[in-house]
Amino acid sequence: MRFAAIAVLVLALTVGACQSSPTAARITPGSSPTPSASPAVSPSPSPAPVVVSPSPTASPLPPVGFACRLPVAGLDDSGALIGGYITFPAAAYAGDPTAVFKRDHSNGTYRWLSTQSPQLIGGTPRLFYDKAFKRWLPSPRAAVYPDGSRYAYVTGALNQTVHIVTVATGKERVLAAPHPINGAVLDFSPSGIYLAGSGEGSETGIWLLNQQTGAERLISGEKIVVAINGGGAWLEQSPTGAQFPDTLVLLNLTTGAKTVWFKKLGAFVNLVGLTADGLPVVQVNGPVYLLRSPAVRDQIYSGGKLFADVASDTHGLWTESSDGVYLALPGKTLRLVASDGQGLVPSGSCV
């Protein structure tokens, strides 16, 4: 999936009218690792860092009616990945000392290395809490195998490789993966590792890497692939040639059939993320919809905030905006439930 900061920036240009992309994270003093004084530097097309700094006292929010700890994560101003939990119903944030991943550039490519042993390494500035193995992984959820036992990441450009990491040991198996150029892992499933281009200068198409043999093959030449899940690829398209995508299409990777799930001519249709059961959440200029099928949708937000990233569990659908973490209970609309961690991204289901 494309990084949230890029999607939010494009959406901000479309919505206009005094909207801005999510601001820096603000965490209660002492609740997170102390950031260094160096300015944040993030490799393109990685999202802008989330700067960790003290926050002013916020007005109390109406509490949720359940107890849980939501994993959240971001980048501090040194470029390190940090994670922690927002505990409900108090909506209080606390950093996790086992969720610190230092940024490294020693081999010519950006990587994030855990400070906990066995060391886990990733190539994307994102964290995911793996409940099965009780470890923070330097990976988006989509690049984690369904049972949580391993994850995959891409390094290099000219000599691109895919690394398959065993969570229990940190051991890596490295496979050559020349395609697509500037590739990213969009799905890791029993079918293999699905790769698509990420950022400017990337190669179009969807490639499938066999994790046993290392063979890869082109399975589709489609552009603007934003997510892959359950044997389907989600595409943002502009059939009329509009500047911004106004149509969300699901491509069946087995049959090649396409199904339009959402279309609004002249609007900017942005995939915010997928729920745990693979349903898309889209923001259309301002309103946010949970799409249950091509014909059935729930509008879960009607204001002007911009949202990025999705996590879901039995409590509902979690996402984040500039003022904090939002939750949509089943059958309800999004509401702000935690403002202590502005900009921190929900990084897994509640524990």
Describe this protein's structure:
Helix content is 3%, strand content 42%. With 351 residues, it is mainly beta. The protein has one domain (4-346): TolB, C-terminal domain (Neuraminidase), CATH 2.120.10. The longest helix has 12 residues, at 4-15. The radius of gyration is 19 Å and the shape is globular. The two termini are 24 Å apart.
List the helices and strands and how they pair.
Blueprint: H1 4-15, E1 68-75, E2 81-88, E3 92-104, E4 111-114, E5 121-122, E6 128-130, E7 135-137, E8 150-155, E9 161-166, E10 172-176, E11 183-189, E12 192-197, E13 206-209, E14 216-220, E15 225-229, E16 232-237, E17 247-252, E18 258-263, E19 269-274, E20 280-284, E21 288-291, E22 297-301, E23 308-313, E24 316-321, E25 324-328, E26 335-338, E27 345-346
Antiparallel strand pairs: 1-2, 1-27, 2-3, 3-4, 4-5, 6-7, 8-9, 9-10, 11-12, 12-13, 13-14, 15-16, 16-17, 17-18, 19-20, 20-21, 21-22, 23-24, 24-25, 25-26
Q: Main β-sheet, in a few words?
A: 6 strands, antiparallel
Spatial gap, N to C terminus = 24 Å
What is the averaged pLDDT score?
85
Shape, please? globular
Strand order of the largest sheet: 5-4-3-2-1-27
Q: CATH superfamily, please?
A: TolB, C-terminal domain
What's the CATH class label?
Answer: Mainly Beta
Q: What is the count of DSSP helices, taking H or I runs of 4+ residues?
A: 1
Poorly predicted runs: 1-58
| Class computed from helices, strands and strand pairing | mainly beta
List the secondary-structure elements in sequence, H or E.
HEEEEEEEEEEEEEEEEEEEEEEEEEEE
The helicity comes to under 10%
**What proportion of the residues form beta strands (DSSP E)?**
35-45%
What is the β-strand count? Answer: 27
**CATH third-tier fold name:** Neuraminidase
- Gyration radius, to the nearest Å? 19 Å
CATH architecture grouping = 6 Propeller
Number of domains: 1
